[in-house]
Amino acid sequence: VARVMVIDDDDELLKLVSLILERGGHEPLLVDDPYQAMARLIEEEPDLLILDVMMPGVSGHEIARLIRATAAISHLPIVVLSARAQAVDRQAALESGADDYLAKPVVPQTLLETIDQLLSRPPTQPGGLVVMLFGLRGGSGRTTLAVNLAAALAGLGDEEVALVDLAPGGSQPALQLRLQPDANWSALPGGMSLSWDSLRGLMLAHSSGLRLLAAPREPQAPHLPARETTMAVLDLLRQKTRFTIVDTPPLLTAAVLAALDRSDLIIHVVRPEVISVQIAVHSNRALHSQQVPPAKVVHLLNQTAPEPQLLADAVSRALRAPLPFVTSYDAQQSRALAQGVPLVLTPGSGPLPTSIRRIAAALSERFRAGATPAASST
Amino acid sequence: MALGRRLIHVDLFTGAYRVSGRVTIGAGGLLSELNNATTDFLNLDEAYVSRIDEPARLIAHYATVAFCKENIVFAVLQDRRDGTTIGTSHGPSMLARGRPVQAFVTASVFEVSGEIRVEGKAVPSSILVQTQGHYLPVLSAQAAAALVPDIAYQGDLVLVQKAKIALFCIDPHKSSGS
Fold first, then answer.
1. What is the mean pLDDT of chain B?
2. Hey, are the CB atoms on A104 and B9 less than 8 Å from each other?
3. What band does A377 get if pLDDT is binned at 50, 70 and 90?
4. Among A121, A214, A227, B90, which one has the highest count of C-beta atoms within 10 angstroms of its own C-beta?
5. CA distance A199 to chain B (A)
6. Taking CB atoms and an 8 Å cutoff, what residues of chain A touch B58?
């Protein structure tokens, strides 16, 4: 039995949803005044919230944003239930922090199934933060960013940081960290039998403090991580480490799809060039079709060449999204790659380490504040 | 509420605004209210206003609104049964008569595409003249503002005000099923 709070100014709708919830075996908590919403949520600590959008004085979107920014209840699953039934309304609901969206009039079975689905998800809090570096354009610098970001987070203090390489082969993060990927995810057992000891045993320790779950060195590795295995790995890492950084190939493999599902924040890496932006636009559509909540996705503009083809404003306009993270070209990066030392761990404060440390600090600060970075940045 | 009348949710579009609210309808559905010649206004309850460039953002709410019917470009309904009289023993609904034909309509700053029902010759001007009332019913419709084409509005029934139509295109050889 779950305690489900329903916030709606329509008394008839409240009665109807209450009946549906009771028949589904749940305990309804009804709120008809949106101004009481936050107080009631904190006081009653429901397991899930069903939220109307169109309410006098305060919209459901505003309430959802407030919830995501309030540490005590930021993890609460939210289903938006609205008479506004257009795709743009669904998108707005997800952007405001809702986990799902249903149009009125709702089919009782659909509502109950949605509730069950959300309640069966593993909790995102408490636990660590899973951050995925994503992009369907090869050569956009994701691996370098992932390695440097993990190293920067590890350098912030006593943070436990894991780096997961989901590429099919090549083990580039291991090469960038000068580690031998003798142990790698090809030896992972099936999803359900995965234990922390066995996972930890496969992770390579780096002098910076981060631990790498490497990919096999051979590009034709016979076994790609399965969806269930990837989910189990990321769920376990969330429980056991403060930050998990996931480096992904420019493909929508089963492992990447699993990582999209399990990540708290998806950093979509884009280079300031026309082809990269075009691919990013299509990648965003792919994320949308995979029902990835837009609130989970932020864009990072990664300048890997001395002269960018496009200015940040132009990229932002093309993507129709802000660029909260921008990294600058750093001539020292090729030397760092050759030496096998992430640039962020070298002395000095070049443009790339400075940008990476800023991102790491933002992730750390927002994690400590109790809100996921995605929710805070929107 | 009078016997036989009920509240439905509707999205109404002017050239610049999207207004979502509730309308009380009778047996004749929304079409009957829109075509009611005794009043120039449509009463809306709990109306929420958005601008067309940000159609999901609510900028205003009013408990009661008189909507000037002359300025409605189109209305979106999620259930065609809210639009007009359902069929009776005397004959099928106007939305079920005739054969389905794909149509494309421009009205004010919007484009609407979907299925219309055609009885007799498929001549656009004749269809506009012969369709009863001031609104053209477009079934399984999709609408978009010409300047914001990425944002589409879908409805089981879209009622386009004929007086706002600039372009009405049909392909008489292409039924919606083909």
1. 89
2. yes
3. very low
4. A214
5. 45
6. 53-54, 59, 61
Chain-centre distance for alpha carbon A296: 5
Q: Would you give the distance in Å from CA A226 to the centre of its chain?
A: 19
Cβ-Cβ contacts under 8 Å, A89 against chain B: 56
Asked if B174 reaches chain A (Cβ–Cβ under 8 Å), the answer is no
The answer to whether residue A84 neighbours chain B at the CB level (below 8 Å) is: yes
> What is the pLDDT averaged over residues A237-250?
90
- Among B133, B120, B135, smallest CA distance to B168 is for B135
pLDDT higher than threshold 70 for residue A371: no
DSSP code of residue B86: P
- What SS3 state is found at A57? coil
**Tokens at A12, concatenated:** 């008839």
The first and second tokens of residue A64, run together, are 């959802």
Q: How many CA atoms lie less than 13 Å away from A152 in the CB half-sphere? A: 23
pTM of the model: 0.57
Q: pLDDT tens across A316-361, in order?
A: 989 988 888 889 888 888 788 878 888 888 877 788 888 998 898 8
Tokens of A282: 């299509």
Nearest to A374 by CA among A314, A306, A321: A321
Q: How far is B122 from chain A (nearest CA, A)?
A: 31
Q: Which residues of A touch B46 (CB under 8 A)?
A: 54, 56
